[in-house]
Amino acid sequence: MTEALPQPVQASIDATDAGDLDAFLATFTPDGAVDDWGRIFTGPEAITGWSDAEYIGKNLTLDVVSAELSDDTTVVVRVTVGGDGFNGPSTFTYTLDGAKVARMTIRE
């Protein structure tokens, strides 16, 4: 089932597609984290380093295939990734804390 995306998730995807690191970072809580296949990057500085090397720095784009709200704080988004790095299907699970992303987990 595809659901409308909550604002922080949509903002994260929009910032990714626009290549806007500042807007991407603004979607996270101050202690937000990215879990990229078990490698965890916590806080803006660590997320920036990861993103520069593997995410926005690789001109990544996310084409949403489906989205499902598991509960009030968890959104599972299946995407097709494009860009200059990994390309193909992936699953992004966003854990929300109010109007911000507390954790973005990336898996196949």
Descriptive notes:
The relative contact order is 0.23. This protein is an alpha+beta fold. Strand 5 and strand 6 form a beta hairpin. It is globular, with a radius of gyration of 12 Å. The mean pLDDT is 95.
Name its key features.
single chain, 3 helices
Q: Return the structural class.
A: alpha+beta
Rg from Cα? 12 Å
Oligomer: single chain
Tell me, what is the CATH class?
Alpha Beta
C-alpha geometry: globular
- End-to-end Cα distance, whole Å, is 18 Å
Mean pLDDT: 95
Number of domains: 1
CATH topology: Nuclear Transport Factor 2, Chain: A
Helix content: 25-40%
Strands in their spatial order, largest beta sheet = 2-1-6-5-4-3
Sheet having the most strands: 6 strands, mixed
**Named CATH architecture:** Roll
